[in-house]
Amino acid sequence: MTSQVTIAEKKKSRRFLPVAGFIMIVVLAAIAYLVAPAVMDWTRANLRGFTFSGNDRETVRLMFAGIIFLTLGGISAMIVALFAPKKATNIKDSDLMEERKAMQDKKKMDRLRQRKVNREMRQVKKG
C-alpha cells in the first residue's frame, strides 16, 4: 500500500535569472565595444582588400561591436545550455514493469472476486 503523504521539496529560486541575464548582456556589450578597435586593426592587417572607406570610424566600430556581441552571445548561450540543470526523471523500466504487473494482478483478482460474488448471488436466488 502506498502512502499518500509526499515530502515537500525545496525548489531553487529563479527570480534573479532575468537580472543575471541582463547583467550578462550588458557585460558582453561592453566587452564587444572595448575589443572592437583591436579586431578592426587585426581585420585590416590580415584581410588586404578590407577598407573602411566611405564609413565613419565610429560607425564601423559599432558594426564590429555588434558582430562581436552576437558571437559572444552565441558562445555564452551554448555554454549555458550545456551546463543548465536538466529535469530529473527517476523512472526506471523495472519500476514500470513492476507497476504494470501489479495492475494486471489486481485486475485478475478483481475478476476472480467478481466471479465469486456472482456465483454466490446465483446460489442465493436459487435457494
Map the helices and strands.
Elements: H1 17-46, H2 57-83, H3 93-126
CA-CA gap between termini:
39 Å
Extended strand count: 0
Q: Helical proportion?
A: over 70%
Structural class: mainly alpha
Low-confidence parts: none
What is the oligomeric state here? single chain
Number of helix segments?
3
The average pLDDT value, as a whole number, equals 88
* Shape category: rod-shaped
Q: How are helices and strands ordered from N to C?
A: HHH
Biggest sheet statistics: none
The share of residues in extended strands comes to: under 5%
Rg over CA atoms, rounded to whole Å, is: 34 Å
Structure report:
It contains 3 helices and no strands. It has helices at residues 17-46, 57-83, 93-126. Helix 1 packs across helix 2 (57-83). The mean pLDDT is 88.
Using brief descriptors, characterize the structure shown.
127 residues, rod-shaped, mainly alpha, 72% helix
